[in-house]
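Problem 12. The chain below contains 375 residues. Write out its predicted structure in token notation.
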Amino acid sequence: MFNVYLKINTDHARFRQIIRGKIKKELRKYISKGEMIARKGKNIVSLPMPSIDLPHFEFGDNKGRGIGAGDGDVGQPLGPGEGKDGQGQAGNAEGIHLREVDITLEELAAIMGEELGLPRIEPRGDKNLSSIRDKYSGIHNIGPKSLLHFKRTYKQALLRQISSGTYNEENPLIVPQARDERYRTWKSKPQDNNSAVIIMIMDVSGSMGDEQKEIVRTESFWIDTWLRSQYKGLETRYIVHDASAREVDRETFFSTRESGGTIISSAYLLLDEMIQKYYSPTEWNIYPFHFSDGDNWSADDTQKCFQILSDRILPKSNMFCYGQVESLYGSGQFFRDLKEHFQDGKQHFDRVIASRIPNKESIYDSIKEFLNKGL
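Solution.
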């Protein structure tokens, strides 16, 4: 029984390593697939994956098939088969089926960090969220059945039978008694978790279509997943804007569609108001992310945006990230102006990251641009 238990654990660990390797290999594809997020549970996400067959031998009659069983003479060179890809009659055999593998968001973030080479974040701020953490720290001979330590109990029973002379090598049956039972014990310790807030801002004007918002939705999921692995006390707030800005919930953020013009400064003013009211920079790690197609109402409003960023937002934020999603109707001018205004050597230039996201395949590289500095 004990050997079976160990084998199951070993096989499971090996299986998880295979899964982990396949996810890392296909991470770029998974990141660009927005439909994966729809299969997200509270703490897990389901990833589609080809079936995995571990190598094994099969015994039996090959029924005249295999090496050396076909027509031909000794020494005759082998050529390609008669079948050609995409040709021939319809078959009745099964195709390749994809299975879904559940993986925790914590594991997903770890894989993402390894594959993208993301550095650990060094939090700032004095505010900590206190919580109680139970840590299993020892073994005791009494306790609830739910905390029974199988391995320790087995070893104790084995030691008892050997020392009492009742152990039989020819019939190595180990029968634990009540006095052999060992239980996990724990200590409750207060744990301080540094707090952080992500403030997602999205342009929802008429030039931002469904495809652009799907890119924002997908990239936001991965950014949120990584930051949650770095901070235990993480809040997320959402702002949408066209000619005016307003705070919305998560569902509205990803589903709303407007048809008005674009005044970006309205979003930055609301962002500044939110930070002043709720998030003191001495207590919080603040990460604003703004996604737009780069179209703004006027050059004057763009300069107003940069003034708000320089004077009010950047001094309080760990990092400000701007992602420009390409659109048929957006000029993309805001990206160029932002890069020029906060170029190397200018004040706060090291707190501004700007990234172009022309399509879903670019999400992977954009996330790396945003997160590679460690924020």
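Discussion. Strands lie at 44-50, 98-104, 128-140, 183-203, 233-241, 245-248, 285-292, 320-325, 352-357. Students who got a different answer should revisit the alignment rule from Section 12.3.
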